[in-house]
Structure formats: structure tokens, C-alpha cells
Amino acid sequence: MSSHSTETKSVPHKTNQGQHGPCLVELAGAYAGRKHPIAGRQAIIGRSPAAEVRLDKLDVSREHARLYVDARGHWNVEDLGSRNGICINGTPVIGDRIEHGDRLQIGGNTLFMFGCYDQLEEQIAQFRRAESSGTEAAGIAHDFNNLLSVLVSTIDLLQQHQRIGTVASSLLDECLADMRDATNRSKELVAQLLRLAQSKGSNSQAPQIDCTRLLDRVATLCRRTFGPTYEFNVSIDAGLLVRAHPVQLKQVVMNLLVNARDAMPTGGKVRVHADTQLLEAPTSSNLFLSPGRYVRIDIEDQGEGMDAHTSSRVFEPFFTTKGAERGTGLGLSIVQTLVRENGGRIQVRSEPGVGTTFTILLPAATPDNKPASTPTPSREPERHSFTSKLLLVDDDPHVLRAYARLLREIGYDVLVATNGREALRRYSAHHPEIELVLLDVAMPVLDGYATFSELRKYDPAARVLLFSGCVDTRVATLIDAGACGFLPKPCGSEALKRAISTALN
Question: What residue ranges in 265-316 does DSSP mark as E strands?
């Protein structure tokens, strides 16, 4: 047993690739829990495409380290002259034996646990992931079918009344309100799904924020809005700093406080506590966190609590105890995703009849002494007469027809195109007159990104407003390249007018 290990069990080399074999398990970052099975008698770790364990990180050298089996059949790790070195269980080494349970740090930020790869266990895990995906798909279908049912039945009712020439204004108002509510709920469901899917995986670009101030503000807001039947017990240490996205962290805390309120429908005590915690060695509940100082946030209620089976499922997408009319079951899934995006972990402890406590651990930040940036006052869009000529590009004929109709009703002169190539032809034919292109992003034939590039080649001054229900990192790239902005679909007439007005000015 090597001197750096604590009660470990040696992993002998396995020559076959059967049921068991050595592997590295990532313990931190966006891919925490990902396994890298080791085939053969050695494996290179690094950024090189030829590396058996490939890490696409700048602090990792192309060929950073080597795992290999020595003459006695034991696994060892060797530094291959890397820039940032390697550590075993926190101790820098050039080369040493590595055993089951040892933690291997590569570069500055990548932490692995060395252990056994169980092929059967992995197959079971894959089956469970597939089963979970099926549950998610069924949940999405259920929620959207309910919302579509409202729209379809209401449209049919209005058409029946239109045929007989009697649509009372009160009925029309009621139907329009129901349809608007269904579309707003659909938009929120899609937004939640996108937030759940778009895991950025790193908080390296996140700003340093005053967690003490943020928690105090959110708790104060909830104290005012929850009503007098809720008593808040708030104890937050001063000077708590984290590097996180403030909007995301605010959403996390707000969601957990709303959950606490919902767990006590007639009122009760809500406790918000925050301090720092030093994690010297990972525990079973904090397996994927590196040792270091963390900001700990506890949000506790005195509601009915949950049994072990229920609390083990609270972070599953579409799992809810509130009933279909009060929740989609995505709130805590999104909370967990956002916490992980910002480098932390969230845990739940609950006991029936006692209550529930959610605990968040976020890496503590050290003061960077940078003055807080002052937000630039937003400029009111200039008013204009809505007489500009626009080119609307979308491959969905229903969307194209609906928004062209709405834009013409507002007063714009609208040309339409169903794909990128048609858009380029239309633009070249009417180039001097077209003041703005509303461009869909995801299209066949020529997608929005290629269309934008070709438009700018033809006319470097072309104004393009990205108008799509699809969001990915390339949207920001196009805005950096000169697009006037991004307007997510679906949207109503007021949002449409504001976005176009801003783009034209």
C-alpha cells in the first residue's frame, strides 16, 4: 500500500475486457460521475486526440500523465513532464503506485477517483438512464397534450359560433384568455426544458457575487410576499462570496423558498441559514466535490416532510408531489442543474412529520478587489411609424403565415421566405428597400447561421434580428458578429414591436 493512501484496496491488472477492469471516475465539473474504463496495460491521460483518457481542458497537457501496470501487476501513475503536474490524494507526485479509492488530480481542476469498472453495473445504469428518458418524454407529452387540448377545443368552439354568426363578446374574451394562458404555460414549459438541457458545465466565466446580500434580498422579498402566516428565521454570515451567475443563484434560492411555502399551505416557519464550511475530505454525500472552502446554504421548512423513497426522487424531471395543477415537476431538476453549473452540489434531508431541509454547497470565492460594475442605463427605443419593409424568414409555413399577418396588422410591409436560399434571392431583389431581416435559426437548405454569413457578404450593413425558438451558443456568436439581437419565439405583438424598434434604431 502506498504512503499516500488511506485504507485502500489494490486494483490488480485485468488482461481481459470482461465484467471488471480499472477505470477513472471524474469527481468534479460538468462531467462528474463520468467513467473512463482503462483497456490494456497502460493509458495516456491528456488533450491529445490519441489519449485513451482525453480531457479537453487548457490546464491539461497534450500528454499529461500515464497509467501503467508494473512488473508486479500493480497500477502506477507517471507525470509525463506536464505543465501543471499531478497529485495523488492531494500530494504532488512525479510517479507513484495508485490504488482503489485514490484520488488523482490532473492539472489544476480535474479530479478522478481510481477504481473498478463493472460492465454489468454500467449496463444497468444505461438502462436506468433510458428508462428515465422515457419517463421524461412521457411527462413532456402529457403536459403539452393538456395545453394543446385547451387550444384545440377553444378554437373549435369559436369556429362553431362563427358559423352560426353568434360570438358573444364575453365568450370571446373568455376563450382568448384561456388560449393566452395555455400559450404562456407552454412557453414556460419550453423555457424550463431549455434551462434543464443547457448545462454550461463551467462557472469559470461567472462573476464574483456577494452571496450574503443576494440571500438577504431574496429572503426579504419572500417574507413580504408570502404573507403574515409565515415566520422567517434568517441567519446569514457576512462577507460570503461565491463565483456564480447571480440570476441563476437567485432562481435557485427563490424556487427552494417557494417549495418551503408550498410544503406549509397554512403557514409555518421557514429557516434560511448560510455560512462557510471547510471540506477537508469528501464524504459519501459530497463525493463529487473537491476539498476546499464552500459557502453552505440551508433552507428548511416545518412541513409534512417526505419519506426516503419520495426524497430520493425529488430531483427527477417531472416528479412532483404537488399535483398536475400546481407544478410541472421541473423546478427541483432545474435547481439541481443550476447548482451543478455553478460548481456546487445540492442535498435534501427530510423526515415525515418534521420537515425538509435543502443544503447547497458552492465553492467560496476570495475577494478579487474589483469594483462592482455600474449597469448602463437602458435607452428607450425611439418611436417610429411601423412602415418599414421587413423580410421574414422561417421554414415553418404556419409560423411564417401567422407572424407575417401580425406584422402587416402592425403596419409593416412584409416579404417572406421559407428558407435561407430564398431569403438571399429576396434580399438581392429588394435590397435597397429592406430595412430589417427577421431570421429563423434552425432551417433546412441553408440554416440561419449560413444565411447570416451570406447576407453580410452581399451587404455588410444588412440588419438582421435573430428570431427563433432554438437557442445555442452560436446565437451569441452571431450577435458578436453584428446581428441586431435575438428575439425568442413564441412572442406577442408588443415584444415584436419593441425588438424591431430597437433593431431599426
Answer: 268-279, 292-301
Q: What is the pLDDT of residue 162?
A: 78
Does any domain span residue 481? yes
pLDDT exceeds cutoff 90 at 323: no
Domain end position, chosen among 329, 363, 397: 363
What pLDDT score was predicted for residue 376?
42
Backbone angles phi, psi at 46, to 5 degrees: 170, -170
Does 176 share its domain with 305?
no
Report CA-CA distances (Å) from 68 to 17, 39, 80.
Answer: 16, 10, 12
Residue 411 CA to residue 60 CA, distance in Å, equals 57
Q: Quick check: 56 and 64 in contact, CB under 8 A?
A: no
pTM of the model: 0.42
CATH number for the domain spanning 76: value is 2.60.200.20
Q: 493-504 and 397-410 are packed helices; what angle lies between their axes, rounded to 10 degrees?
A: 70
- Compute φ and ψ for 480, nearest 5 degrees: -60, -30
Pairwise pLDDT comparison (329 vs 423), residue with the higher score: 423
- What's the Rg (C-alpha) of the chain? 28
Dihedral over Cα of 3, 5, 7, 10: its sign = negative
Of all residues in the chain, the percent with pLDDT exceeding 90 is 28
d(CA 138, CA 135): 5
Same domain, 114 and 153: no
Asked whether residue 374 is assigned to any structural domain, the reply reads: no
Q: Are residues 278 and 397 in the same domain?
A: no
The b-or-e profile of 6-45 (16+ CB within 10 A means b, else e) is eebeebebbeeeeebbbbbbbbbbeebeebbbbeeeebbb
DSSP 8-state symbol, 412 = -
Q: Report strand pairing: 42-46 vs 20-26.
A: unpaired
pLDDT digits (tens, 9 = 90+) for 476-500: 677 778 888 888 877 778 888 888 9
State which residues form the domain around 58: 22-120
Q: What is the pLDDT of residue 282?
A: 56
- The mean pLDDT of 18-44, rounded to a whole number, is 76
Q: Using an 8 Å Cβ cutoff, are 66 and 94 in contact?
A: no
Is residue 468, in this structure, part of any structural domain at all? Answer: yes
Judge if the upstream peptide bond of residue 490 is cis by omega within 30 degrees of 0.
yes
3-class state of residue 265 by DSSP: coil
* Residues 338 and 197 sit within 8 Å (Cβ to Cβ): no
Look at the chain and report how many structural domains it folds into.
4
